[in-house]
Known about the structure:
Elements: H1 8-25, H2 30-37, H3 41-49, H4 57-67, H5 71-78
Amino acid sequence: MVRTPLTPEERERGERLGRLLREARGPRSMVEIAAAAGLSAETLRKIETGRAPTPAFFTVAALAGALGLSMDDLVTRCAPLPHSDAA
Length: 87
């Protein structure tokens, strides 16, 4: 299977998601949160660092549950940024 390259917007959205998850995790360990979400710590590490910028919906939902975040908040805070088409 060949994956199409990510767009700059997809990479930026993944970076925003990673930052949001790191902030929400706070002082809790990556291992603790990953276990609570049913993921490996390496998967969480990849998402937080932007190396996995497009995680599956159920992965994001599990992390949101483990971190006490609402999916609505995640969508709002990670939505694509509006482009300014200055001419």
